[in-house]
Amino acid sequence: MLPDVAFAQDLISRHGSPLYVYDLNAVAERARALKAELPDDAQVYYSFKANPLPALARELRLNGCRAEITSEGELASALEAGFPAAEMMFGGPGKTAKELNEMIHAGIRFFSCESFPDVQKVSTAAKSAGVDVNILLRVNPPDAPDARMAMTGIESQFGLDEEQWIEQAVIIQAGWPRVTVRGIHVYFGTQVATREALVENTLRALQSAERLEAATGLQFQIVNAGGGFPWPYASDGEAPDFTGLKQGIEEARKAVSLGNRVVLWFESGRHLVAGSGTLLTTVVEVKRSRAKHFVILDTGIHHLGGMTGLGRIPRFAVTFKNLTPEPGDADAPPFVADLVGPLCSPLDSLARSAKLPNMRAGNLLAVPNVGAYGLTASLIGFLSHPAPMEVAFRGDQVVETWQWKTGHAKQ
Ligand SMILES: Cc1ncc(COP(=O)(O)O)c(C=O)c1O
């Protein structure tokens, strides 16, 4: 949620501009609301990739979420936020032996495995550490989901096609040393827009598990049905109404033989934290080049929206609210401008040809809904500007401040 103007100004005077601010009450509220829309026995995993800031993650832990991590850095954040390693899930493609040894050493016992060699690597690491571990087989089911960025039902580097797991079911039946297969993991895609699509995806995950049980003769205990719970990115708005989601999922469970035997896990990043975050930025200069205006900000794609490769370019859609308009600005005619950052690249543009109210140097602007895929999903190292401070607040109190550090450390 946006902080109020006086509080935002106070934070800027204390911590500088640009500044990421996060409302911890909004994080707690979202976690509680999402859990209330899922079956009572479901587990919600927080996907650290959305935002590894320990202050946010801690709030999610305190509100009943577990940690889904994919790297050593995310492990460090999750431990800092107080998550017990034994309840974390480590996943992602291309796991290395070094990472796996580190995860096992840290106490992680749940892995999502993306292929046969991936399971083998987990088994080798568990054997050499002398511990038992649990895995979920990450499955790419045959059908494509209704998601903005589909990750199943297509050719994909994520997971293994359901057909391939089934063709080699004998290997799964034979098992791997120190490994127990607990179930499957399906991540259909992100920004699944409707309750109906979320229910449909959960049903597909359960059906896929049913087919794999039939092929392998195993009995699963867990189906991680992914999630893809939506939230607007860097623009106004909230999530669609999920009323009835829980009932829909319970009905999906009844439609499959294993539905009431398995525990459903869900993973969520953006839905849990996006709404908590606001980027505060200051207009450095407004200038004109021929027929065009440029509003130059002290932030850019190194702090927001660097995920061009992931199709998450916020261009055209970013909402900027002017928190400090000057007297008379409201009467000035709107003008059309590009909002650009301080990087030496024309790519450093947060909005193109945006119709703006009057803006002047010194105005403080706010970009809403950037608590997920903001700073750490951006080109934070490009041009070596220091990272903005990140402030977690509750009400009108600052709870914690953090700063991401980049730069070369001589070895
Ligand atoms: C496997 C997996 N889990 C969870 C997520 C988190 O997605 P979201 O932030 O949309 O909830 C992603 C995002 O790409 C993912 O790939």
Number of DSSP strand runs: 20
Instruction: Please count the helical segments.
Output: 11
**Count of distinct structural domains:** 2
Helix content: 25-40%
CATH class (first level) name of the largest domain: Alpha Beta
- Could you tell me the CATH topology label of the largest domain: TIM Barrel
| Low-confidence sequence ranges | none
| Mean pLDDT score | 93
Q: How widely separated are the two ends?
A: 42 Å
Bound heterogens, unique: pyridoxal-5'-phosphate
The helix-and-strand class reads: alpha/beta
- Judging from the principal axes of the Cα atoms, what is the shape? elongated
What kind of sheet is the major sheet?
Answer: 9 strands, mixed
- The CATH superfamily of the largest domain is identified as Alanine racemase
Query: Into which percentage range does the β-strand content fall?
Result: 25-35%
CATH architecture of the largest domain: Alpha-Beta Barrel
Report the C-alpha radius of gyration, rounded. 23 Å
Keywords, please?
411 residues, alpha/beta, TIM Barrel, Lyase, Ornithine Decarboxylase, Chain A, domain 1, 2 domains, nine-stranded mixed sheet, eight-stranded parallel β-barrel, 11 helices, 20 strands, binds pyridoxal-5'-phosphate
Question: Your description of this structure?
Answer:
The protein is elongated, with a radius of gyration of 23 Å. It has 2 domains: 24-273, Alanine racemase (TIM Barrel, Alpha-Beta Barrel); 275-403, Lyase, Ornithine Decarboxylase, Chain A, domain 1, CATH 2.40.37.10. The mean pLDDT is 93. Helices cover 28% and strands 26% of the residues. Strand 3, helix 4 and strand 4 (89-90) form a beta-alpha-beta unit. By secondary structure, it is of the alpha/beta class. Strands 1, 13, 14, 15, 16, 17, 18, 19 and 20 form a 9-stranded mixed beta sheet that branches. Pyridoxal-5'-phosphate binds next to strand 12 and helix 11.
